[in-house]
Specification:
With 303 residues, the chain is α/β, with parallel strands linked by helices. It contains eight helices and 14 strands. It has one domain (3-302): Carbon-nitrogen hydrolase (Nitrilase/N-carbamoyl-D-aminoacid amidohydrolase), CATH 3.60.110. Strand 7 (164-170), helix 5 and strand 8 form a beta-alpha-beta unit. Bound molecules: D-[(amino)carbonyl]phenylalanine. Residues 130, 171-172, 175, 195-198, 201 line the site of D-[(amino)carbonyl]phenylalanine. InterPro entries: Aliph_Amidase/BUP, C-N_Hydrolase, C-N_Hydrolase_sf.
Length: 303
């Protein structure tokens, strides 16, 4: 067996007034608790340093860019990296990435995987950007990821770390089977993802009561159908008047939920995840080499 003891560190709300320093203090507390429980790795949510700012229509780019990190680690996040290295624990965290590439300024919804020595060994930029790009004042709140972020340009890479093959994705990605399959084709054994999911979905309020169900359904299906562990970590609770679901969970390759958060505030759940648990599925029912028929799958890559 190859045990990776994982902490899924759900965050309660981050209000607009909370500084990065305020948030890093909460992250370090959760990281220390995870280490004390024997974790090799602790996973934090999507946009884990700020409030979910795509809920607002903003026209001043400087106001928007204030939610982004220009370097990682930067001055306010370096203490998190230093504490992780001191404790000997790895972590994932999501953040808004502002960078200059090919001579132009780029904005991504990004997540990184950091090893026990504090090195960034994996990086992902969100590909499935939900919501809308224009101002839609009929909504109780906006969901403007298509306005503030570019589509990720790194694909879904996997990293060899923590004794296995680790993958990253972010929030809406978890609802799309293609996300897991692209990583499954690379032999992924654990997918780490964060999410900020409003309970209310203005275009389809009739779905709201199923928000928690659809959250687990998506991740359990992805785990089972690709024989991989899935660790899904929420930023939860009432952020600036908007209720975000919790439901942080650690899911086995069997599709079973092995640990689940109970509330909607800062909450740590831990599980000893045996990466070899996936072998039984990868070598039988989901033996891709033996059973997949890619010649029949062309349509799923069409527009
Ligand atoms: N959040 C949501 C998610 O996919 C959303 C978007 C909200 C979809 C409500 C459906 C209903 O979980 C992010 N950040 O992708």
């Amino acid at each position: 067996s190859r045990i990776v003891t994982v902490g899924a560190a759900q965050l309660g709300p981050i209000q607009r007034a909370h500084s990065r320093t305020d948030v890093v203090r909460r992250l370090i507390d959760l990281m220390r608790r995870a280490r004390a429980m024997g974790c090799d790795l602790v996973a934090f949510p999507e946009l884990g340093l700020t409030t979910f700012f795509p809920r607002w229509w903003m026209e001043d780019q400087a106001e928007v860019d204030a939610f982004f990190e220009r370097e990682m680690p930067g001055p306010e996040t370096r203490p998190l990296f230093e504490e992780a290295a001191r404790l000997g624990i790895g972590f994932t965290i999501g953040y808004a990435e502002l960078t200059v590439e090919d001579g132009r300024t780029r904005h991504f919804n990004t997540s990184i995987l950091v090893d026990k020595a504090g090195r960034i060994v994996g990086k992902y930029r969100k590909i499935h950007l939900p919501g809308h790009a224009g101002h839609e004042p009929w909504r109780a709140f906006q969901h403007l990821e298509k306005r503030y972020f570019e589509v990720g340009n790194l694909g879904w890479p996997v990293s060899r770390a923590f004794g296995g093959i680790m993958g990253l994705c972010i929030c809406n990605d978890r609802r799309w089977p293609e996300t897991y399959r692209v990583m499954g084709m690379q032999g992924v054994e654990m997918v780490l993802l964060g999410y900020n999911t409003p309970e209310h979905h203005p275009p389809a309020p009739e779905q709201d009561h199923l928000a928690e169900f659809h959250n687990h359904l998506s991740m359990q299906a992805g785990a089972y159908q690709n024989s991989t562990w899935v660790v899904g970590v929420a930023k939860a609770g009432v952020e600036e008047g908007c209720m975000l679901i919790g439901g942080t969970a650690i899911i086995a390759p069997s599709g079973e939920i092995v640990a689940k958060a109970l509330g909607r505030d800062d909450e740590l759940i831990v599980a000893a995840c045996d990466l070899d648990h996936a072998v039984s599925y990868k070598t039988t029912i989901f033996n891709f080499a033996a059973h997949r028929r890619p010649e029949a799958y062309g349509l799923i890559t069409e527009r």
